[in-house]
Write the structure tokens for this entry.
Amino acid sequence: MAKLVRKIPGGATFANLGTKLGKTFGVFGSLGITGEREIPAYAPTSFLEMFKNISQPSSEKKIIFYPGCFINDNQPQVGTAFVKVMNANGCEVLIDEKFNCCGSPLVGTGFLDEAKEHAENNVAEILKWKEKNIPVVAACTSCSLMLKEEYHELFDEPEMHEAGRNIFDAFEFLEILATNGEFNAKLNSVQKTLLYHVPCHLTSQSIGLPAAEILEEIPGLKIKLADAGCCGLAGNYGFLKDKYEISMKIGAKLFERIAKKDFDAIISDCGTCRVQIEHGGKVKPVHPLEILAAAY
């Protein structure tokens, strides 16, 4: 849908208006979508379009950025923050437009054949970059988990195991740089306390909490873990009409934690977690990359 929208002049504006009208007139309910939620708005300009106008210093250290659908079409500011952070750490960011959606939403609604088609396309691209010793880095934990682990768990093809070794979450990659003494720690002071909601799809990767580790390098910044379990949205699950109530019940503990308001901002690495936090917690969260980019 996003690709179609981007082909029409002013398409994002019309699509956003259409979803608002659809909610107002109860169209979503007839489609099995809850009318309780706002559909995430399309950004006026996609990240891929913005990227064409970003000037970067050339570097021998190159990485491929896999933005995923949500960053590309809904929150492109996360993508521009990613580029800024990676440039600050001596990496030149490249884009491969042959990538398509990671397939996580397809899997969540049972379209496994279509998800496998996406996987085969993406794995071929990942392996192409692996042969050139160029890592592929994602800034959405749902995407990175899918590319790194879930392809081979679902479809069990040898090349999917191999491709997974060339996928890194953004802060996982920065932590590797830090371990190698290559992380740029010249960061400005940020006198804030952040509440960090850790996405389930990060926990599943068993790589610790790299965003918290890296952000603690920022002078004056304090991190509090929400420690409130799953947000309850689970990608497109919580948008289903018959799943909305249970989605909100699952997220209740997180919403109660947010209500304490003992922080300056809330962060999470997952786009749909941020959607749920804004809906149920009534606060607008940001990606940890946006905090780090501002500190540079």
The chain has a mean pLDDT of 96. The first strand starts at residue 62 and ends at 66.
